[in-house]
Amino acid sequence: MSRKIFSLCCLLSITILSFAQQEPVVESKYDPHALFSPVPYAPGPNISRAATGEPNVGYWQNRADYQISVSLNDIKNEISGSVTITYRNNSPHALQFLWLQLDQNFFNKNSRGQARMPVGENSRYGDAASGFNGGYKISAVKLLDDNTDANYLVNDTRMQIRLPKAVKPGGDVIKIKIDYSFTLPEYGADRCGILKSKNGNVFAVAQWYPRMCVFDDIQGWNTLPYLGPSEFYLEYGNFDFNITAPASHIVVASGELQNPSEVLTAAQVKRLEEAKASDKTVIIRSEKEVTDPASRPAGNTLTWHYKIENARDVSWASSKSFIWDAARMNLPSGKKALAMSVYPEESNGVKGWGRATEYTKGSIENYSKRWYEFPYPVATNVASNVGGMEYPGIVFCGSNAKEDQLFGVTDHEFGHTWFPMIVGSNERKYGWMDEGFNTFINSLAKMDFNNGEYKNSGVSKELLLPYIFNRESESIFNTPDAMKEANIGSALYYKPGYGLELLRDQILGPERFDYAFKTYINRWAFKHPTPWDFFRTIENVSGEDLGWFWKEWFIENYMLDQAIIGVDYDKKVVSNGAIVTLANLDQMAMPVLLSYETKSGKTGTLKLPVEIWNNTTTFKVKLPTTEELKSVTIDPDKVFPDINFANNKWNAN
Ligand SMILES: [Zn+2]
Question: Model pTM?
Answer without folding.
Answer: 0.94
